[in-house]
Amino acid sequence: MAQQEDVFKKLISHCKEYGFVFPSSEIYDGLSAVYDYGQMGVELKNNLKKYWWDSMVLMHENIVGLDSAIFMHPTIWKASGHVDAFNDPLIDNKDSKKRYRADVLIEDQLAKYDDKIDKEIAKAAKRFGEAFDEAQFRATNPRVLENLQKKEALHQRFAEALNRNDLEALRQIILDEEIVCPVSGSKNWTDVRQFNLMFATEMGSTADGALKVYLRPETAQGIFVNYLNVQKTGRMKIPFGIAQIGKAFRNEIVARQFIFRMREFEQMEMQFFVKPGTELEWFAKWKETRLKWHKALGLGDHKYRFHDHDKLAHYANAATDIEFQLPFGFKEVEGIHSRTDFDLSSHEKYSGKSIKYFDPELNESYVPYVIETSIGVDRTFLSILAGTYEEETLAGGESRVLLHLPPALAPIKLAILPLVKKDGLPEKARQIIDELRFDFKCQYDEKDSIGKRYRRQDAIGTPFCATVDHDTLEDNSVTVRDRDSMEQIRVPIEELRSLISDKVDLKQLLRKQA
Ligand code: GAP
Questions:
Q1: Greatest CA separation for the chain
Q2: Phi first, then psi: what are they for 309, rounded to 5°?
Q3: Which residue's CA is the closest to the ligand 1 atom numbered 19?
Q4: Are 215 and 80 contained in the same domain?
Q5: DSSP code string of 363-381
Q6: Do 203 and 305 fall into the same domain?
């Protein structure tokens, strides 16, 4: 675990050093849980958003896009339940004065039981070698069984407390499990209190009676309140979906783990409107579709798992998370929720306007049910970096740090490197870039030795480097080096476009997930 934390720290410095992510307002000592994306980060992020957007809007005839405003009428948040129920249960340690989410402390405790079980299994696997039967060991080893039983009992108590919204019961679990503050090491806890996560501000001048508005905590409500506009103007027939990418804001009190939990972040959400009664079928379908999308990134299928919710949000009748194995454990990157007709019916009630859908096939009107897929851009960005970062030792003892980014997402697709800064090689390299810049993002680099330049490109995940040497002037060919295998091949310049385009095209990813 300590080793994983070390990797995570290195990843954070790597992000800063190579222009992926900077702390916000750094020259003013930063602003907690707010980050800026640098010159490489923004390219990767844009490519990631395009991958999601195209997978929804390009690949589905019945899904269209939307870009709704961040500010919305404040009653929307009353209708959605966010004013009354968008809370985190918080607890303070009286000695360290640090504040924690009570549910997160308990989830960490659950993960500790898993760790203990994993350690027992790893020890036994080492002891028994080839003959080790993990399934039998899990079913019979007394220490594994004891930890499993403790974990299950805790899990059940936790789920019950959450479902009852019983803050005192959450506190009692923390006391009974003897959970200590990671900073002070003490068990001196306050009561658990609810804290609303929405940021509020004022619209208009105070003299006119300013309106209290919220920065949206999710993009979904912009879709709900526009669903009939889109349905009517786009002549959409159920089932259909509306996709949106945009900023969301939450006043996270326990903001930790870099861009995993931010106060300003970006979501990619799709609301899929279906006939009531068919929602669980669609829920299952979208679970599968979304997992495929993630797996197509090639970060390792075993690094994903579903986590079904113990406590359903106020709007859901089924919900699951897609979790990814980050250096600090399996964590949610996407939520898939069957939101019933909760939001639309509530907006009907609060606005006083009918937003029913007229179904021409059934010749009747109804409020559609909704399946939502909601993925965090920043968390997916983090999972891609964590899943592709490698410190590789090369033959001969040298080492390199590289990002095995999927070529379609890499910020730079091709680096063009003149072997030396003279003899007409820089001019030739520039000529090649001028030809290729219409097709994909190239970067010119002439500084330092060729080895150092390769390392710089490896560190930002550039899948290909083309070296222009003296022979290039004679044979009009370049040496193309592959980032992962480091193999080099000689390629005629006229073939460069098709060779690289093919490999870095987003179609590669879209085909895999389709
Ligand atoms: N509309 C439903 C919704 O917002 P959610 O599970 O609260 O559901 C969806 O959020 C996704 O948004 C999460 O899976 C996560 O990837 C991302 N997300 C939520 N809070 C975040 C935060 N504070 N920082 C970064 N990403 C966040």
A1: 79
A2: -75, 135
A3: 376
A4: yes
A5: TEEEPPEEEEEEEEHHHHH
A6: yes
How many beta carbons lie within 10 A of that of residue 143, not counting itself?
13
Q: Which residue minimizes the CA distance to atom 16 of ligand 1?
A: 376
The H-assigned helical ranges of 234-370 are: 279-295, 342-351
Which of 37, 265, 290 best tests ligand 1's pocket when mutated (most atoms within 8 Å of CB)? 265
Question: Cβ contacts of residue 343 below 8 Å, gap of 6+?
Answer: 79, 80, 220, 221, 224, 315, 370
- Which has the closest alpha carbon to 327: 38, 5, 100? 5
State how far the Cα of 273 lies from the Cα of 67, in Å rounded to an integer. Answer: 18
Instruction: Quote the tokens at residue 99.
Output: 């504040």
**What residues form DSSP beta bridges with 334?**
322, 375
CATH number for 188? 3.30.40
Q: Are residues 491 and 420 part of one domain?
A: yes
Site of tokens 């290729």? 436
Return the residue whose CA atom lies nearest to atom 17 of ligand 1. Answer: 376
pLDDT at 1 over 60: no
| pLDDT tens readout for residues 115-161 | 999 999 999 999 999 889 999 999 999 999 999 999 999 999 998 99
| Cβ 513 vs Cβ 296: under 8 Å | yes
Nearest ligand 1 atom to alpha carbon 321: 14
Nearest Cα neighbor of 508 from 344, 296, 322 is 296
* Structural domain harbouring 436: 394-511
Could you give the C-alpha distances from 124 to 112, 114, 141, 197, in angstroms and in order?
19, 15, 10, 45
Name the token pair of 365: 């009107």
Segment 402-432, tens digit of pLDDT: 999 999 999 999 999 999 999 999 999 999 9
Of 296, 294, 292, 272, which Cα lies nearest the Cα of 283? 272
Q: What integer pLDDT is reported at residue 199 of this predicted model?
A: 96
Burial class (CB in 10 A: 0-12, 13-18, 19+), 235: exposed
Task: Give the CATH number for residue 222.
Answer: 3.30.930.10
Q: How many domains is the chain partitioned into structurally?
A: 3
> Do 277 and 298 meet the contact criterion of CB atoms below 8 Å apart?
no
Q: CB under 6 Å to ligand 1: residues?
A: 218, 220, 250, 252, 261-262, 265, 267, 269, 332-335, 372, 374-376, 378-379
Residues 168 and 203 in one domain: no
- Determine the 3-state secondary structure of 348 from DSSP: helix
pLDDT tens-digit profile of 327-374? Answer: 999 999 999 999 999 999 999 999 999 999 999 999 999 999 999 999
Do both 58 and 162 map to the same domain? Answer: no
Q: What is the pTM of this model?
A: 0.88
Q: Are residues 103 and 63 both part of a single domain?
A: no
Contact, 106 vs 154, CB < 8 A?
yes
250 pLDDT band (50/70/90 cuts)?
Answer: very high
Q: Are residues 279 and 352 both part of a single domain?
A: yes
> In angstroms, rounded to a whole number, what is the distance separating the alpha carbons of residues 139 and 135?
6
